[in-house]
Amino acid sequence: MTRLFRPATTFMDAPAAADARGSRAVIIGMPFDCGTHPVRIGSRQGPAAIREQSALLRAFDPLTSRNPLAELNVVDLGDALVTPSLIEASFAAIEAAVWHAVDAGAVPVTMGGDGAVTLPQLRALHRRFPDLCVVHIDAHTDAYPIPGFNTATTFSRAVEEGVLDPGRSFHIGARGPTMVPGVFEYAEELGYTLVTMDRLMEDGMGPVFNRVRERIGGRPVYLCFDMDFFDPAVAPGVCTPTWGGASARDGLRILRRCGELNLVACDINTVSPPHDVGGMTAFLAATVLWNCLAMLANREHRPNAS
Fold it and tell me: Is Ligase set as a keyword in this record (predicted)?
């Protein structure tokens, strides 16, 4: 049995559990950061803050009158047993925690943690879904031409390890300055389709997500949602704030377009509570997570749902 740490507070007061069996979606916290950022360390506290702010949410989807937590029999499995900055051991714990959910037939809905927590989750998902695709919504590609395992190389290493299909994967929302040159070009060299924030705004979310859906089709999708996709005006408490991001309204609308895809995992990351203002970023992240659950519940009511 995968050992997980039981939190004092669960997401939206969902039942705490040690076993994913019988649930169609489960919550798992990933309280890990690499600890290498020069001024912003704190996303290891993200899962606790998101759980705390989830008390502000209400259960029912007004568009469907459904309670996604009840429909999916959601349980909170707690946190993976990680140690911030210790990458090898923590990655193994994250992979084991996510595999526990996947092996039980549940969709893992996870809370980071910095962007490094995504790679071990991809490793777990790829074991079940060898044709896994990624939709990565983020101000940064996290696919930089630099060595090592860190927040900037998650999707570089993912291609090298073969845990996703880059030719059918998307980076959406990239913007702002980068710490090394050629970052956007490198992501495209790896095979990803890059949709910058400017391109997203110029083309519109409808046409962009039509292309996403056409390229991916019914393949399994790992949704990675970095909270710095939102503008710092609405989400200040993130690891790497970057101006020119989405409003809360537009960001949530873009998120809901992902409900058209075959989601097999949802990963919400980079909330940094020490840099948050009044818990607003954690509250928005909790709202993103609830929307992911709503999308999963709604999918089961579509005529062609598997």
Answer: no
Q: pLDDT value at position 306? A: 45
What is the rounded CA–CA span in Å between residue 40 and residue 42? 6
CB atoms within 10 A of CB 186: 18
Report the CATH architecture of 4-299.
3-Layer(aba) Sandwich (3.40)
C-alpha span between 213 and 192 (Å, rounded): 15
- Three-state DSSP class for 88? helix
- Secondary structure (3-state) at 262: strand
**Phi and psi (nearest 5°) for 134?**
-125, 135
DSSP letter, residue 134: E
Look up residue 214 and give its two tokens.
């056409």
Distance, CA of 37 to CA of 16 (rounded, Å): 33
pTM of the model: 0.95
- In this structure, which amino acid lies at residue 135? V
Token pair recorded at residue 133: 């695709």
Q: What are the φ and ψ backbone dihedral angles of 178, each rounded to 5 degrees?
A: -125, 160
Distance CA 206, CA 200 (A): 9
Per domain, the residue ranges of the chain are 4-299
What is the C-alpha separation between 215 and 186, in angstroms, rounded? 20
Q: How confident is the model at residue 35 (pLDDT cuts 50, 70, 90)?
A: confident
> Does residue 29 register a pLDDT over 90?
yes
Report helix angle 205-216 to 248-257, nearest 10: 30
Are 230 and 248 in contact, with CB atoms under 8 Å apart? yes
Q: Across the strands, what pairs with 107?
A: 25
Phi, psi of 30 (to 5 degrees): -125, 80
